[in-house]
Amino acid sequence: MIRRVVWPRGLLGRLTLLVLSAVLLQFLGAAVLQELAERYKAGNIQADHLADRLAIGERALSSVPPGQRPQLAQALSTADLTLSWSERPAGAGEGVASPWLRDLEMRLQKRDSGLAGRGLILDRGSGEGEPHRVRGELRLADGSMLGFDVTRLQHGLPDLLRSLLSTALLASCLLIAAPLLVRALGAPLRQLVRAADAIGRGRPVPVAVEGPMEVRRLARALNAMQDRLARLIADQTQALAAVSHDLRTPIGRLRLRTDLLEDRPVQAEMQADLDEMEQMVGSVLAYLKGDADPEPPRAVDLVALLTTLVDAAADVGQDVVYQGPDRAVLHARPLGLKRAFANLIDNAVAYGGSARVVLHCNETDMAIAVSDDGPGIPEAELGRVLEPFQRIEGSRSRATGGVGLGLAIAVQAVEREGGRLALLNRPGGGLTAEVTLPRR
Question: In what residue span(s) does the Histidine kinase domain sit (predicted)?
Answer without folding.
Answer: 242-440
